[in-house]
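Lecture notes, unit on protein representations.

Consider one protein chain, 318 amino acids long.
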Amino acid sequence: MSAPAAAGAVEAAARVLGPRARRDAPLGALTTYRVGGRAALLVEVEAEDDLVAVAEAVAATGLPTLVVGRGSNLLVADAGFAGIALTLGERFGQVEIDGTGVRAGGAVSLPVLARRTAAAGLTGLEWAVGVPGSVGGGVRMNAGGHGSEISETLISARVADVADLAAGGRASTLGADGLAFGYRRSALVATQVVLDAEFALAPGDAAKAEQAMAEIVRWRREHQPGGPNAGSAFKNPPGYAAGRLIDEANLKGLRHGSAFISPKHANFIQVDPGGAADDVWRLMVQVRAAIRTSTGVDLSPEVHLVGFPAELPSTGDS
């Protein structure tokens, strides 16, 4: 889409969305990197009618959509996102516990969900205390840590697809099998929004769960950096640990502009306050090229990249 056509599409979408949409909204502030560009339009979804309005705007203009959870696994290019970004509001931030069953809104923080379920004497989500994402994002990428992942306890997710809602479609419930979970992936696509999810946990001891979570938090503070980052930059290739490959290539501390590989954990790329998202991406390109040259292994981004080339180059050219 040419620049004038894109601008016209944004204007048309803004007319459809009316006061629901904010124009030229900062996205970097909604990510844990705290850098990156703006969204042409941003809609905070407080009811499913808001999603229908977004669907109508998309159908009328062809603009892309971007679902933003807690932004803990997201890097937006400095040029921004020339489409409609969505965030879920407070209505989707509720947790309901019934026996060993738990229903959590897509906007619920995973650490909050971990603590709420542990306090209720349930076990199965303690690992999530160390993952600073949302339930919706966790389902989309099959988030995990410390030997567990969300697919192990998820029963179903209620999902709305903005590609279908304008034609009268409705949110549907997908079972875990229908989500086709794999390592840090699911079958969900960019136009689908996780409204809530249902989990089946096991009875446990609240004190033991609290102790387990405290140990996870302690371990992460000891082994992983704080500050602006998005967790693991690369997925672990089969048979390898990405962090170990980067460490053994002596890349800790490598810097490109405002971005640098953490001296504390080689699979974390950090960025200086006020830095550039594009620096993070270029450093990822450098790291991928160096690891491919030294080991023949291709690293794949774990961070969701928006506004960058679809494939991360492995030649060092950016």
